[in-house]
Specification:
The protein is of the alpha+beta class. Helices cover about 40% and strands about 15% of the residues.
């Protein structure tokens, strides 16, 4: 019973503190793991800058893309942003 409890706690900690996103590297899609800066049940993130060679303009982002960037910045980089300016996007594009 103790082993099961320990396994369950470790699994929960992994879900809360490990995240990933997919990036195109050398023609292959790779899964990039990272340790989250804040705990959340969300495990899969979208790094809008991982596959694009250029930084997107803030006024061209859809609401869904804006949410993806805000989540990525918060949990991957530890940056809280409202994504109102182009400078916010550039800050979140740094790895």
């Amino acid at each position: 019973m103790k082993k099961l409890l320990v396994a369950a706690v470790l699994a929960l900690l992994a879900v809360l503190y490990i995240g990933y996103y997919e990036a195109l590297e050398d023609g292959d899609i790779e899964t990039i793991l990272f340790i989250k800066k804040h705990p959340t049940l969300q495990m899969k993130f979208y790094n809008i800058h991982a596959n694009d060679g250029e930084i997107r303009k803030v006024e061209h982002l859809t609401n869904e893309e804006r949410t993806w960037i805000i989540d990525y910045c918060k949990y991957r980089l530890g940056i809280e942003t409202d994504l109102k300016t182009q400078n916010n996007i550039e800050t979140c594009s740094k790895k």
